[in-house]
């Protein structure tokens, strides 16, 4: 049995639903079910009763839920006490994330659990463009980074691991007359400007936009703007369209529509490969484990 299985068990018990837990953690339902099944096999008992509407704890499940709740609390307490005995001082871990992304469903849980067991560690999250993010990581101004795989590929000093696949999307203003078509497709936006942020302006972003639209026979007219937020606002005000991916927080905007594109990219978590900070490496591993099964 491992902490990941316990975390999944506690989440399913709290939500009374495998489906809700899957959506909350960004982990596939089969992956969660597999870990719960392994846990039940090791413990020799059934932990849940499933019916059409709810997933409920068995009597054994309730007892294990109470036990693991105490275990989590005590583990956090003992780690804090030991750190004080060994003279561990407080520290701050700075996490850098590619601008525009929203990982709140699962990253919020990961950070909470990490801080519950590392009370002496503060975490700060800052958002950067891709080029700035790699620089901040290399200069130790960011301790851990989450960005597209391509952000880190050319740096031998960076250790990274793919954790998610990000499907590309074309975003547009819902008030654009084109958006009223019954069956909308990327080809319909052939004459629109494609906005992109200066903060990631280089040959790679131009290549990425062109590659995304190539299957649709479009050679985009690319217009650079100040930053990611400016790009989204240009779309919101119906000045053109843009390419982003499924983790872009602005997809929740009521005025913005999105079309799935064929292309996808890996999302990676990264640290400096020479890092000797145990807490940073532990958080790095926890983030990798949190998206297991995706």
In short:
The protein is an alpha/beta fold and 294 residues long. The protein has helices spanning 3-15, 18-25, 29-43, 59-85, 104-117, 130-138, 203-213, 228-236, 278-290; strands at residues 48-50, 55-57, 91-98, 121-128, 144-148, 158-173, 193-197, 221-225, 241-245, 256-272.
Annotate the secondary structure layout.
Elements: H1 3-15, H2 18-25, H3 29-43, E1 48-50, E2 55-57, H4 59-85, E3 91-98, H5 104-117, E4 121-128, H6 130-138, E5 144-148, E6 158-173, E7 193-197, H7 203-213, E8 221-225, H8 228-236, E9 241-245, E10 256-272, H9 278-290
Parallel strand pairs: 3-4, 3-5, 7-8, 7-9
Antiparallel strand pairs: 1-2, 5-10, 6-9, 6-10
Domain HTH lysR-type: 1-58
Keywords: DNA-binding, Transcription, Transcription regulation
InterPro entries: HTH-type_LysR_regulators, LysR_HTH_N, LysR_subst-bd, WH-like_DNA-bd_sf, WH_DNA-bd_sf
Tell me about this structure.
This is Transcriptional regulator, LysR family. It is a single chain. The two termini are 20 Å apart. An eight-stranded mixed beta sheet has the order 4-3-5-10-6-9-7-8, sandwiched between helices. The chain has helices at 3-15, 18-25, 29-43, 59-85, 104-117, 130-138, 203-213, 228-236, 278-290, and strands at residues 48-50, 55-57, 91-98, 121-128, 144-148, 158-173, 193-197, 221-225, 241-245, 256-272. The chain has three domains: 3-68, Winged helix-like DNA-binding domain superfamily/Winged helix DNA-binding domain (Arc Repressor Mutant, subunit A, Orthogonal Bundle), CATH 1.10.10.10; 70-161 and 267-290, D-Maltodextrin-Binding Protein, domain 2, CATH 3.40.190.10; 165-266, D-Maltodextrin-Binding Protein, domain 2 (3-Layer(aba) Sandwich), CATH 3.40.190.10. It is an alpha/beta fold and 294 residues long.
């Amino acid at each position: 049995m491992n902490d990941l299985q316990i975390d999944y068990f506690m989440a399913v018990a709290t939500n009374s639903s495998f489906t809700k837990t899957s959506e909350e953690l960004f982990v596939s339902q089969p992956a969660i079910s597999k870990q719960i099944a392994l846990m039940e096999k090791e413990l020799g008992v059934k932990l849940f009763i499933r019916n059409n509407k709810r997933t409920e704890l068995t009597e054994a499940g309730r007892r294990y839920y109470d036990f693991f709740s105490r275990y989590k609390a005590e583990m956090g307490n003992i780690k804090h006490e030991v750190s004080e005995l060994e003279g561990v001082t407080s520290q701050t871990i700075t996490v850098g994330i590619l601008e525009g992304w929203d990982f709140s469903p699962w990253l919020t849980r990961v950070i909470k659990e990490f801080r519950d067991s590392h009370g002496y560690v503060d975490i700060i999250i800052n958002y950067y463009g891709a080029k700035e993010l790699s620089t901040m990581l290399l200069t130790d101004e960011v301790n851990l980074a989450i960005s597209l795989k391509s952000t880190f590929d050319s740096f031998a000093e960076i250790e990274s691991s793919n954790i998610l696949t990000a499907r590309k999307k074309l975003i547009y203003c819902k008030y654009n007359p084109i958006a009223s078509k019954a069956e909308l497709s990327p080809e319909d936006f052939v004459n629109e400007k494609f906005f992109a942020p200066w903060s990631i302006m280089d040959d790679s972003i131009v290549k990425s936009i062109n590659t995304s639209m190539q299957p649709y026979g479009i050679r985009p007219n690319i217009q650079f703007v100040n930053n990611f937020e400016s790009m989204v606002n240009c779309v919101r005000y119906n000045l053109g369209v843009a390419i982003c991916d499924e983790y872009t927080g602005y997809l929740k905007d009521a005025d913005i529509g999105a079309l799935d594109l064929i292309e996808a990219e890996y999302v990676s978590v990264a640290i400096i490969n020479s890092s000797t900070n145990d807490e940073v490496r532990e958080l790095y591993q926890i983030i990798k484990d949190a998206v297991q099964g995706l």
